[in-house]
Amino acid sequence: MTQQGWNFDNSYARLPESFFRRIEPVPVKSPELVILNKPLAETLGLDSTELQSEEGVQVLAGNELPAGSQPIAQAYGGHQFGHFTMLGDGRAVLLGEQVNPAGNRFDIQLKGSGRTPFSRGGDGRAALGPMLREYIISEAIHALGIPTNRSLAVVTTGESVFRETKLPGSILTRVAASHLRIGTFEYAARKGNIEELKLFADYAIKRHYPEIEMKDNRYLALFEEVIKRQAELIARWQHVGFIHGVMNTDNMTISGETIDYGPCAFMDEYHPETVFSSIDVQGRYAYQNQAAIGQWNLARFAETLVPLMHEKQEQAIELANEALSKYGNLYHQHWLSGMRAKLGLQNEEEQDESLIEELLEMMKEHRADYTNTFRALTLDKPAETAMNGSDEFAQWHARWQERLSRQENSRESSLQLMKISNPAVIPRNHRVEEALEAAVKEGDYSVMERLLEVLSRPYAYTSDQEKYARLPESSHYPYQTYCGT
Ligand code: AMP
Ligand code: MG
Fold first, then answer.
1. Substitution site in 79, 87, 162, 260 for ligand 1 pocket (most atoms within 8 Å of beta carbon)
2. Residue 454 to residues 167, 210, 421, 459, Cα–Cα distance (Å)
3. Average pLDDT in the 57-73 region?
4. Is residue 251 in contact with ligand 1, taking CB distance under 6 Å?
5. Fewer CB within 10 Å, N or C, the chain?
6. Arithmetic mean of pLDDT, 332-354
7. pLDDT at position 481, please?
8. What's the gap in Å between 90 CA and the centre of ligand 1?
9. Among this protein's residues, is 250 annotated catalytic?
């Protein structure tokens, strides 16, 4: 183990050569650390003080390799907006897998680390604003209790990147259970080497689902496990109004973690058709489509596993279809139980779903803020919702109160359930923008640090969170986010 605490294994780099290219990060001029996630460093077994030292920063910038690292760019493909393309890490390098003192394994990846054989026309670099944005949103998603990759650090490079304008360059250090994607399976399947595909599937099983290793049909079991994780993940995005924005198959993990924070954002006003991404003109990845897209992506995953599931193709397809047919119900059960919790419902009644749907319908009609509506209900301040004053809301509220009194659990326990199910704060787009502007334009990171602190305890309901729950001025609409930034 090194002074900084690196303790690398490189299991991915032991896969067949076709799965990656050996490549080192391209050095940068004058790196400076602008943010470091100390609690995460500690979880990883890394020494924050050492990471902040000159040598530590050189590592986080890709100028020096940590001991034990065998850096690679991963090969993968993916369906982007429905169309298959061969991709790969075009601006990221996997340094290796940090094995922490508890024995858990984490991919350590530098994003924005320079060109790779997969860069195509890109410069391999990243701008500061988008890397800080990914840091904020991924850490917020983690604090909300939703599986996600994490952000360890951001450095500025002292170099410029050129997008529409000249921007400060930056590198983000990402931490993930792995970067095995549906797109990696698609890549392996299209290569047409069944032995390598099988080897990769076995690797994925060993890494994420060792409990199914001994099953009769472990490839079918792998598919079933990923279905479960994705169904739950997407339901949990829905519960907090999170729109991923670019649910291409290369951005969907086998581990069930959220990755690739590009054009994602949290919804303010509730509307099922909400889309933030400037390039998603058809609304393919709109809020209301996320669950169905999850299924579409899983179908692409199934196609890659068919040759492994059964020697007879027809039977393999039947097995895959049968497994996939459970996704809808699995997703719905997760969604429903989470929505029940948001309303403090602890037992199940058949009419619960219509109670939930009616509320959402009213929210849509009255353009109610998604997070703050549930926040107001949690605080028992219905007058603070946009629907207040309408007869239908008064009737709905009475119905909900009756429903709550029909359960045996105390009001207090329902309130507790609502508090842990309805975030008091989310990364509001205007707050994120404000933090990024102070950081990028003024070099002032205090706004971002305060925001991160508030977002780290989204269910705390403290008074210092109140101003972060407030809505933006209407001039902030429509909010747009950008890919490939
Ligand atoms: P994404 O939309 O972030 O999932 O990226 C899709 C593909 O484009 C991936 O292969 C990325 O590595 C690649 N890519 C995105 N931005 C750049 C860039 N600036 N330079 C090189 N490759 C990039
Ligand atoms: Mg991607």
1. 87
2. 28, 37, 17, 10
3. 98
4. yes
5. N
6. 98
7. 81
8. 5
9. yes
- List the beta bridge partners of residue 155: 33, 171
Count CB neighbours of 103 within 10 A. 6
In this prediction, residue 477 carries a pLDDT of 65
Q: Which of 186, 217, 204, 147 is nearest to 297 (CA)?
A: 186
- The pLDDT of 181-203, averaged and rounded, is 98
Rounded distance, CA 334 to CA 326, Å? Answer: 12
The residue whose CA has the least distance to atom 15 of ligand 1 is 484
DSSP characters over 117-142:
TT-TTS-S-EEHHHHHHHHHHHHHHH
Quote the CA–CA distance of 45 and 461 in Å, as a whole number: 31
Q: Which atom of ligand 1 is nearest to the CA of 92?
A: 12
Residue 1: band (very low, low, confident or very high) from pLDDT cuts 50, 70, 90: low
User: Are 124 and 90 spatial neighbours (Cβ–Cβ below 8 Å)?
Assistant: yes
Nearest CA to ligand 1 atom 11: 90
Q: Are 41 and 106 in contact (CB under 8 A)?
A: no
Closest CA to 78 of 23, 36, 136, 118: 118
pLDDT of residue 69: 98
**Percent of the chain clearing pLDDT 70 (strictly above):** 98
Cβ of 246 closer than 6 Å to ligand 1, yes or no, is yes
